[in-house]
Amino acid sequence: MASECAVQVAFSLVRVSLDKKGGNMRVLVVEDEALLARQLTAALRRAGYAVDHAADGERADLLGHDEGYDAVVLDLGLPKVDGLTVVRRWREAGRAMPVLVLTARGSWHEKVQGIDGGADDYMACAHLSGDRADRAILNFAAVRSCSTRVPAK
Fold first, then answer.
1. Which of 64, 77, 91, 92 sits in a 20 to 30 Å window from 152, CA-based?
2. 23 — phi, psi (to 5°)?
């Protein structure tokens, strides 16, 4: 179920953002589950995205600080450094790229923590149908294209 959701997310993100950026977006996929990471990166690459992948929070933190991404799809349950810590570090360092949390964690409390921690949107895939995933991605794309996030000083 989670991998189906991830592929749906990737295709929804592709459909929305191709109109906005002509397919030239650079996306970081942060996912430790190998199959899910392969599915996401493959779908995005087929659509013309430049995609990097990090399988742990330490690598994601480094890439997010050193590279210029247009968007990040971030899992929370990562080895070495958890995803929430990673996004908080990015925000504290002034990194303002949009971050979509894509995770199996779906409690209200965890969603609030994710958004409060600096994520732009939060999707708990275990509870999303394809249509709901599409709507969430459309909302994420609207946040991305109209974001007024100001990097921290």
1. 77
2. 80, 10
Q: Is the pLDDT of residue 127 over 50?
A: no
Evaluate whether residue 150 is within a structural domain. Answer: no
> Measured between alpha carbons, how far is residue 18 from residues 52, 120, 126 in Å?
18, 19, 26
On whether residue 8 sits in a domain, the answer given is yes
pLDDT by residue (tens digit) across 56-94? Answer: 999 999 999 999 898 888 998 899 999 999 999 999 999
CB-based contact 36:9 (threshold 8 Å): no
Structural domains of the chain, count: 1
Asked whether residue 99 is domain-assigned, the answer is yes
Residue 93 DSSP symbol = T
| Domain that includes residue 34, residue range | 2-144
Distances (CA, A) of 62 to 9, 59, 66, 69, 77: 24, 5, 6, 12, 17
